[in-house]
Amino acid sequence: MNLFYRAFGEGEPLFILHGLLGSSDNWVSLGKQFAENYSVIIPDLRNHGQSPHSDLWDYAAMAEDVHVLAENLGLNKVNIIGHSMGGKVAMQIADAYPGFVKKLVVADISPKQYPVQHRTILDGLSNIKLEELSGRREADEQLSKAVPELGVRQFLLKNLERVSGKDFQWKLNLTVINEQIANVGVATFPSSQVSVPALFINGAKSQYLAEGDADEISKYFTNAQFATIENAGHWLHAEQPQAFLDKVMAFLA
């Protein structure tokens, strides 16, 4: 699958992988800051953003997509930052393609299995009557019944695009994501120990990493470091972008 991607800067390659219901668009601002030191590539993962849709949607497929993109760009060793779902993709890549990842940054996610989440959000998106929309404000009003947080709605509604003058459609493959949402929570523990230098960075207010997760992660990622960003939840890179940039840049350097 040929992924859509954005590219900024020059230097050592750095891939940034977005989370569930996100896209490369969410990382443009930080991507450009990383691009002051790196050649930054930010793909839309399959079924997201401007990348193709597919009925096959699991971590093995997403990891292969990113590896193929790197090969097509003539890259055989890269750094990777992955947030949430993108972090699990990044871990899958480090396991499946030994020697391909130079340094790995996993943002607010563990390789452990997670229960199905975001069902309320997915139901809210699915219940928006696209054929009746006259504008984005109406979509926001409909979504507010399921998602009261304005910032979260603004993030989600970036997936809505206008076509043929007045009609709206979803950029993401909402049908497959709805049907296969359990795939996002599956465990991504590597098949053997991974010695790649890895930074697992979490938000202090997030519940995605629990006490004891660091010990379990270290059994599989033998060169792992851990960091916490204060006053940040799951979307730590959006809530505290400078702190995220500083910690990740220090690790990559």
CATH class descriptor name of the largest domain: Alpha Beta
Structural class assignment? alpha/beta
Computed over alpha carbons, the radius of gyration is: 18 Å
The CATH superfamily of the largest domain bears the name Alpha/Beta hydrolase fold, catalytic domain
Mean pLDDT score: 95
Beta fraction = 15-25%
The tally of strands reads: 9
Name the CATH architecture of the largest domain: 3-Layer(aba) Sandwich
Count of helical stretches: 10
Specify the overall morphology. globular
Low-confidence stretches: none
Number of structural domains? 2
Q: Order of strands across the widest beta sheet? A: 1-3-2-4-5-8-9
Taking the sheet with the most strands, its summary is: 7 strands, mixed
Distance between the termini: 32 Å
What pattern of helices and strands is seen along the backbone? EEHEHEHEHHHEEHEHEHH
The helical percent reads 25-40%
> What is CATH's topology name of the largest domain?
Rossmann fold
Keywords:
globular; alpha/beta; single chain; two-stranded antiparallel sheet; Rossmann fold; 9 strands
Q: What order do the helices and strands come in, and which of them pair?
A:
Elements (H helix, E strand, L loop, with lengths): L4 E4 L3 E6 L10 H7 L3 E6 L15 H14 L5 E6 L1 H12 L4 E7 L11 H8 L9 H8 L6 H7 L3 E4 L3 E4 L3 H6 L18 E6 L9 H8 L3 E6 L6 H4 L1 H12 L1
Parallel strand pairs: 2-3, 2-4, 4-5, 5-8, 8-9
Antiparallel strand pairs: 1-3, 6-7
Helix pairs in contact: 2-3
